Amino acid sequence: MERCGWAGPEQIYLDYHDTEWGVPEYDSRALWEKLILDGFQAGLSWITILKKRENFRAAFEGFDPHVIAEWDEAEVTRLLADPGIIRHRGKIEATIGNARAWQKIEADQGFDQFLWRYFDGKPLQNRWESLDQVPAFTPLSEQISKDLKKAGFRFCGPTIVYAFLQATGLINDHLVSCPCHKRVAGLAR
Question: Could you give all domains of the chain from N- to C-terminal order, each with its CATH number?
Answer without folding.
Answer: 11-185 (1.10.340.30)
